[in-house]
Amino acid sequence: MKYLAMIAALAFAGSAFAVDCVDCHNTINVEEHTEMEANIATCDDCHGFTDHHELDTDIHTPDLTIAECADCHTVE
């Protein structure tokens, strides 16, 4: 299932609707967040991520890591 989600994410990233986080936010220290094993659920706990972002839950599972986010979105 995770591979299917990643394939869908890559297809999405190539679409006109792909979002770069740095369009709205300062850059994210991917290395630091990777070391702390951050994932979307962690982002939400610390930053209220889902209060401000509507995610496609077919692609963005709660265990998706910050490194995986950086595969599709520009965060640094």
Q: What descriptors fit this protein?
A:
globular; mainly alpha; single chain; 76 residues
Q: What do these coordinates show?
A:
With 76 residues, this protein is mostly helical. It is 49% helix and 0% strand. The model has no long low-confidence stretch (mean pLDDT 80). It has helices spanning 2-13, 30-35, 40-47, 49-52, 66-72. The protein is built from 5 helices and no strands.
Question: Short description, anyone?
Answer:
The protein is mainly alpha-helical. It has helices at 2-13, 30-35, 40-47, 49-52, 66-72.
Q: What is the number of beta strands?
A: 0
Counting helices, strands and paired strands, the structural category is mainly alpha
| Elements, N to C (H/E) | HHHHH
- From the spread of the alpha carbons, the general shape counts as globular
| Unreliable sequence segments | none
Tally of alpha and pi helices: 5
Largest sheet: none
How much of the sequence lies in strands comes to: under 5%
Radius of gyration: 12 Å
Mean pLDDT over the residues: 80
End-to-end CA span: 27 Å
Portion in helices: 40-55%
